[in-house]
């Protein structure tokens, strides 16, 4: 995402607020970017830094071609400082080092920017040291704190920052972005239904384990339709060996739920909502096996199985019980 126009499509309110900062020449000394992972916080902080340093800016938009823009892309701009967790936390020494850096005159200009990633991971001492830094802001200093957990940030720090809330991504937009990244249309639709985190979706698309999840769900449906007596055999010899962890099993059940949602959408002629677009013939066959009411009951059974998995019930027993329920 290279432009404010692109970021406005994903985070319209946050992008517009930052653009207004430039248009009205009212850049705050500190911002708190709050939102789930994958919602564009890092991308927006980079673009905002470019807009601050770029000497060829058009309104609020950086040129993307000048020396400043290129050095920010490569992580080598001397007046842009990144702080990320050292191990499990951001430590006091990291903030002290940052403060020391900011006592020096800017190498490229009088402006300085620092970005703190996973700001909620600051230790108490680091937070208190940062607070003192924020209490005496320089006119030419801009801070961006990126966090997934705003409440974990000290109230005294939050009160000194302009809060920008990053909303979960729209599934349609996630699907579009995945296709732009080269993901097939059918996989993009499935991935966007499972997560609104673009980073996670791209990672799943590259994961061979996840590619086999879709295949196993289709195979399970075919067994339940055509060879119901072999359902338990399939679960124990093919399904469970693939889903060794509880989190993996939850993901498999999520995909299975999407299948039965598609069966219901097929009954309702809501073709635009169907996820398994390349398996329409199999969906048509499934609608002969499961009525709309029984498909809805299957969804309830899957939700109950997910609940039991969360409560540490034995995974094999849960899946065996679910298989028998899906066969009815």
Question: What does the model show?
Answer:
The chain is α/β, with parallel strands linked by helices and 328 residues long. The protein folds into 2 domains: 4-165, P-loop containing nucleotide triphosphate hydrolases (Rossmann fold); 207-327, Zinc Finger, Delta Prime, domain 3, CATH 1.20.272. It is 58% helix and 8% strand. α6 (124-135) links the parallel β3 (112-116) and β4. α5 runs parallel beside α6 (124-135), α8 (171-180) packs antiparallel against α9 and α12 (231-242) crosses α16 (315-327). The relative contact order is 0.09. The mean pLDDT is 91.
Which descriptors would you attach to this protein?
alpha/beta, Zinc Finger, Delta Prime, domain 3, 328 residues, DNA_pol_HolB, P-loop_NTPase, elongated, five-stranded parallel sheet, Rossmann fold, 2 domains, DNA-directed DNA polymerase activity, single chain, 16 helices
What's the short story on this structure?
This protein has helices at 4-10, 12-23, 41-53, 67-74, 92-101, 124-135, 155-158, 171-180, 185-194, 198-206, 208-226, 231-242, 246-267, 280-289, 292-310, 315-327; strands at 30-34, 80-83, 112-116, 141-147, 162-165. It is of the alpha/beta class and 328 residues long. This is DNA polymerase III subunit delta.
